[in-house]
Amino acid sequence: MKKNGILKIDNVSSEYIVEKYGTPVIVMEENKIRKNCQLYKNSIDEFYEGKGMVYYASKAFSCKEIYRIIMDEGLGIDIVSKGELYTALSVGFPVENIIFHGNNKSEEELRYAIENNIGRIVIDNVEEISIISDLAKKYSKIINVILRVKPGVDAHTHDFIKTGQIDSKFGFGIENQEAIEIIKCILKYKNIKFKGIHCHIGSQIFSIDPFIHTAEIMMHFILDIKKQFDIDIEELNLGGGYGIKYINSDDPPDYREYMKEISKIIFKISKDNGIKVPYIMMEPGRSIVGESGTTLYTVGGEKCIKNIRNYLSIDGGMIDNPRYILYQAEYDMIIGNKCDLKKDKLYTIAGKCCESGDIIGKNILLQDAEKGDILAVFSTGAYNYSMASNYNRIPRPSVISVKDGKDKLIVKRESYDDILKNDI
Ligand code: LLP
Predict the structure, then answer these.
(1) Distance 78 CA to ligand 1 centre (A)
(2) Each residue's pLDDT tens digit, 251-276
(3) Taking the CB of residue 60, how many other CB atoms lie within 10 A of it?
(4) How many domains does the chain have?
(5) Residue to mutate, 61, 286, 321, 380, ligand 1, most ligand atoms under 8 Å from C-beta
């Protein structure tokens, strides 16, 4: 392997990582994750008088070590399945700081959550209300719920990751009265405590305007609920969705600015209408772990199709990063053992699956690459490992964490026995 400047990730050499762990390997920078947690927490303290909580949306990356870090930083989590909950409970995550989302939670999942005294369940369909009530009766418990609503805001993001508009499988519409009807229904159940309302307008959003607009709509909905039912909504959950930097032209929002603006609005609307300021809940996922991840691959070779394109093959692809194939997501990359050379060659990065669409980037400017080089892809900490698959029976990669020059394995590479383990 030719060497012209080796990439280091928090002072750990990418060459050393590749030799020790093999490829593909996802490298998570622990310090960055912790710093992001602190930014979110401190912003609530600074602008919202500390009356709130940050819940890491763990669908972005769920594994034991991430839950340990999040727990250590004092954040809560949002989970959307028994699998995520099971993982979190396996490291002793405090149940009161867990919120259970999902548009179709099964009875088994609800039972597991209730047996384990999970903090909040987010109501996202009519059917689950009576299931929750029956389980509450069975276990003699009062279950705290919040209701997912659709504020009707267009979040200017990819169609597949937009959720706040009326035509969405998540939540109940405010403008078409669906949400009010559901609240009527929830209030009939004595063993369900209606604590608050939730929305999530989409993901990878760069402008703070749709968030501010959403906060206003949600506050007006709280006033409406007060008028119609004479109840005080204690909790306002505004979801996640703050964008991160994948490529140079990405310009993520300043989170402190966002928190400052929405705090002003919520405090003002509360004061003007004589209601108590709601406890605020935030659910960032991507922006906690996304930029802390880097995936390292080994280059297999090049296929140059004259006057068309150069394919550069890597030993991973859509199996560990399906985001290009799903959303045409763009990434910044570098040849990790040639950092000092100029990027002067255009490549399309091809994965190893038997699928023409298996690429992770088109027309990427890189250093002249050859077999054995390290390809490093940045900002792969969110929605990469968590959306990885075993297509073509390729084992999922390993994940390591690095911190101040030290490395640690956090998820083992899948073995071929793992691949066979459910086959009869
Ligand atoms: N809260 C709720 C209820 C959500 O549905 C989500 C994301 C979040 C919070 C966190 O959003 P974030 O801060 O991570 O943007 N697979 C897609 C993203 C799907 C997001 C699903 N929900 C991607 O790779 O871009």
Answers:
(1) 10
(2) 998 999 999 999 999 999 999 999 99
(3) 25
(4) 2
(5) 286
